[in-house]
Amino acid sequence: MLFSQDIGIDLGTSNTLVFVKGKGIIIREPSVVAVDQRFNPVRVVAVGSEAKEMIGRTPGSIAALRPLRDGVIADFDATAEMLKKFIRKAITASPFAKTRIMICVPSGVTEVERRAVNDAAKSAGARYVSLIEEPMAAAIGAGLPVENATGSMIVDIGGGTAEVAVVALGDIVTSRSVKVAGDSCDEAIINYIRKKYNLLIGERTAEDIKIQIGSAYPYEGEGAMNVKGRNLVDGLPKDVEITAEEVREAMKDCVNQVLDAVRTTLENTPPELAADIIDRGITLTGGGALLRGLDKLIEKEAGIPVRVADNPLDCVVEGTGICLEKHH
Ligand code: ADP
Ligand code: MG
User: Fold this and answer.
1) Three-class SS state of 184
2) Half-sphere exposure of residue 281, counting CA atoms within 13 Å on the CB side?
3) Secondary structure (DSSP) of 204-273
4) Backbone angles phi, psi at 211, to 5 degrees
5) pLDDT at position 158
6) Which stretch of DSSP H or E encloses residue 173?
7) Cα of 312 to ligand 1 centre, how many Å?
8) How many CB atoms lie within 10 A of CB 200?
9) Which end of the chain, C or N, has fewer beta carbons within 10 A?
10) Which residue ranges have their beta carbon within 6 Å of ligand 1?
């Protein structure tokens, strides 16, 4: 029987990850809930990948939703329920054990929403709950020397938000959060294909296109992809060939907005720290960091070296894990 247990959670807009001290990352699931709308208030029937798989395959009364979609807690009850289900899966200690949970929430989350996350974790069995800023967790997980006087820049690109921050001496010196990230790229691809080809595609297909051939900068061996959807003219199924160049064109505005956030943050950085960043470079984390050529584009436009962190999707939860190990 365990008498204490430390758990770190990355409550992301696309994915929720759970780290258990001594075990590592034990949960990696989409931040999706399936609700049965016949009940009032609605009843959560599944969370995570199980919920995601129910999309489009369930009776009409069940709907799958992403409660954190735009970097805010859009559906509070669903978020709390999802968090509770994940925490209950992670807690293996006795109910009397001192369970400590550190949760990382998107930085756009309000004070009220933070309290709500805290309450949800408590009611799932946590004795102590602490919240950590997303860019800080990302920086720690990416192995940046956050406690140093030397400034480091972290750019975390998730589904709903992109967060840019400069950290030094254990604190966030300056930061910027924009609601333009992976999801907006997917939406931009949907809009582009609808306008150019009168073809309607779904979100999953758009994400697929982005991951398979999408890029922020021209790359070696660019190809094309066959895309299926519904013809908006006659309503029948139709397919078209989409090139990597078209996908880059579709995502251009989104990528530029992330670039602008990097520029603005650099402008707001005190000169001494800006000099550190020029020397040490910018680190990218989050799923969006995996977009081909994004590092190259930022490097070229900002004139500063850029590196993608190892396992960028894991940095935030790894950061909470490192914090838990340290403060014990
Ligand atoms: P969040 O922290 O908001 O939950 P994640 O860091 O988990 O987000 O990243 C999810 C986003 O990363 C999604 O928009 C997803 O489409 C995108 N993503 C994942 N892999 C890739 C890839 N190889 N190329 C481009 N985007 C990717
Ligand atoms: Mg994230």
Assistant:
1) helix
2) 13
3) HHHHHHHHHH-BSS--TT--EEEEEEEETTT--EEEEEEEHHHHHHHHHHHHHHHHHHHHHHHHTS-HHH
4) -70, -40
5) 96
6) strand 171-178
7) 9
8) 15
9) N
10) 12-15, 158-160, 182-183, 207, 210-211, 286-288, 290-291, 313
Report d(CA 64, CA 50) in Å as an integer: 10
Please give the structure tokens belonging to residue 196.
């150019």
Residue 296 DSSP one-character state: H
User: Would you give the DSSP letter of residue 46?
Assistant: E
Res 56: pLDDT: 66
Q: What is the gyration radius of the CA atoms in the chain, in angstroms?
A: 21
Crossing angle of the two packed helices 182-197 and 244-267, in degrees rounded to 10: 140
Residue nearest to atom 6 of ligand 1 (CA): 286
How far apart CA 139 and CA 316 sit, in angstroms, is 8
Compute the half-sphere exposure of residue 87: CA atoms within 13 Å on the CB side of its CA: 32
Q: Which numbered atom of ligand 1 lies nearest the CA of 134? A: 2
Cα separation of 247 and 244, whole Å? 5
Tokens encoding 215: 């890029």
For residue 187, the model assigns a pLDDT of 97
Report in angstroms the alpha-carbon separations of 70 from 46, 75, 176, 184.
21, 11, 15, 10
> Which residues are placed with Cβ below 5 angstroms of ligand 2, an ion?
12, 158
164 C-alpha to ligand 2 centroid (Å): 12
Distance 198 CA to ligand 2 centre (A): 33
CA distance 45 to 68: 18
CA of 286 to the centre of ligand 1 (A): 6
For the chain, which residues score pLDDT lower than 50? none
